[in-house]
Amino acid sequence: MIKLNIIKKWDELMSFFWLVLLAVVAVIIIYVVVHRLLINRATLILKKRAQSVTNEAVNDCLGQLSGQTFNLSSEIVADVWGKGVLAFEFHFDPAKYHLTKKQLSKNILEQKLIEYAKKNKISAYKENSTIFKVTDWWTYENILHIDVAYVLNEATREYIADLQRLDQHK
User: Fold this and answer.
1) Is 149 helix (H, G, I), strand (E, B) or coil?
2) Where are the transmembrane segments (predicted)?
3) C-alpha triplet 112, 115, 121: angle, nearest 5°
4) What b/e readout covers 54-92, taking b as 16+ CB neighbours within 10 angstroms?
5) Domain count within the chain
6) What is the model's pTM?
C-alpha cells in the first residue's frame, strides 16, 4: 500500500513537472513570436518612412538638375545585406528627361542630396556624417540605375563601409 502511494505521488509529481515544462515552452514560443512581429513591424515602418524621405530627396534633386518634374518610386535594395539596411534603387531613362552626363553624375547627385538634406534639416545616424550616399550607379539597356542609402542606422552605415571595402578590392 505504501509502495502504491509512493508511485501515485511520483506520477502526480511527474505530471505536474511536464505541465510546468509545457507551459514554460508555450510562454517562450509566444514571447518569441510576439517579439519578432513587433521588431519586424518597427523595421518595416522605419524602411517605409526612410524610403519616402529618400524618394522625395532624389526626385527633388533630379528635378533641380533637369528642370523637369520627377516622380520616381524606389525599390528596396535586397535584404542580402541584412535587415534594416536603408538603401533604395531608382531607375529611369535619362534621355527621356534630356539629362546629359555633364548634368548628372554620381558625384553631382550626391552633392545635391547633401544640400537637400541640409536645407530640409534631415538628420543622419551620427552627427556630421553623410546623410545620403549614392552607393551604386550603372546603366543597362539605356536605363540608369542609382542606389541611394539613407544613413539613419548602424546597419546602413555598415552596408556602406562594406561596399567601400569591396570597391577597394576591385
Assistant:
1) strand
2) 16-39
3) 140
4) bbebbbbbbeebbeeebeeebeebeeebeebbbbbebee
5) 1
6) 0.76
Neighbours of 168 (CB within 10 A): 7
Angle (CA) 88-92-97 rounded to 5° is: 130
Q: Cα–Cα distance between 47 and 119 in angstroms, integer?
A: 22
150 assigned to some structural domain: yes
CA separation for the pair 122, 44 (Å, rounded): 20
Q: Determine the Cα–Cα distance for residues 61 and 106; give it in Å rounded to an integer.
A: 12
* Helices and strands (H and E) in the chain: how many: 3, 4
| Residue 31 covered by a domain | no
CA distance 162 to 34: 32
Quote the CA–CA distance of 39 and 42 in Å, as a whole number: 5
Question: β-strands 87-92, 132-140: how paired?
Answer: unpaired
For the segment 104-123, what is each residue's pLDDT rounded down to a tens digit? 899 999 999 999 999 999 87
pLDDT confidence tier of residue 168, bands split at 50, 70 and 90:
confident
Cα–Cα distance measured from residue 170 to residue 156, given in angstroms and rounded to the nearest whole number: 22
